[in-house]
């Protein structure tokens, strides 16, 4: 059984290029959003390593589907494709947090139900077990990042594969305390 832990994350939205790489040095965590997991940011070769993978020591990897992909019932295929893009690039999975953050829920006030999130998180964990190992899968923290708020956070408490939250706008509101308290 995995041990849930709540990480401290630093969000970086700065586009990455050589002149901006110094912004990553010294950060404890870097968040890589969904839209970047399948782009040239993820591509590298032995002759030309990707700047991200040479600068980042701890990564919060956000994965999730669009509303159109959800309606097509291809959520699992989408998140597996996004995970597959980084499997060979990550050397130490103890320094990775996976955040399931459905794109359709970001900033909309809409959220997956706790049961739906648990099912998807469990599928993510099983995918990691199949591709990496059971030990890695059980130790990776998988957070929910789709419009978690003070009211819905408590419904996630008993979900075995939901290890915490990646909180956006609600972190600036008084209800953030309720989100934190929901995990205690």
TrEMBL record:
It catalyses: D-glyceraldehyde 3-phosphate = dihydroxyacetone phosphate. Its EC number is 5.3.1.1. Pathway: Carbohydrate biosynthesis; gluconeogenesis; Carbohydrate degradation; glycolysis; D-glyceraldehyde 3-phosphate from glycerone phosphate: step 1/1. Keywords: Gluconeogenesis, Glycolysis, Isomerase. Pfam families: TIM. It comes from the Eukaryota. It comes from Kluyveromyces lactis (Yeast). GO terms for cellular component: cytosol. Homodimer. The gene is tpi1. The keyword Isomerase applies. This is Triosephosphate isomerase. GO terms for molecular function: triose-phosphate isomerase activity. It is an enzyme of class 5 (isomerase). Belongs to the triosephosphate isomerase family. GO terms for biological process: gluconeogenesis; glyceraldehyde-3-phosphate biosynthetic process; glycerol catabolic process; glycolytic process.
């Amino acid at each position: 059984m995995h041990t849930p832990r709540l990480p401290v994350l630093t969000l970086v939205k700065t586009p990455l290029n050589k002149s901006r790489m110094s912004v990553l040095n010294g950060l404890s965590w870097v968040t890589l959003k969904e839209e970047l997991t399948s782009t040239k940011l993820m591509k590298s070769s032995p002759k030309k390593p990707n700047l991200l993978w040479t600068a980042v020591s701890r990564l919060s990897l956000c994965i999730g589907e669009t509303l159109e992909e959800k309606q097509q019932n291809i959520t699992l295929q989408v998140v597996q494709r996004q995970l597959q893009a980084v499997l060979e690039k990550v050397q130490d999975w103890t320094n990775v947090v996976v955040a399931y953050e459905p794109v359709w829920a970001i900033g909309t006030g809409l959220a997956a139900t706790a049961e739906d999130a648990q099912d998807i998180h469990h599928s993510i964990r099983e995918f990691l077990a199949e591709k990496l190992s059971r030990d890695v899968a059980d130790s990776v923290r998988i957070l929910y990042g789709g419009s978690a708020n003070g009211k819905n956070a408590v419904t996630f408490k008993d979900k075995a594969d939901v290890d915490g939250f990646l909180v956006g706008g609600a972190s600036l509101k008084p209800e953030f305390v309720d989100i934190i308290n929901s995990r205690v």
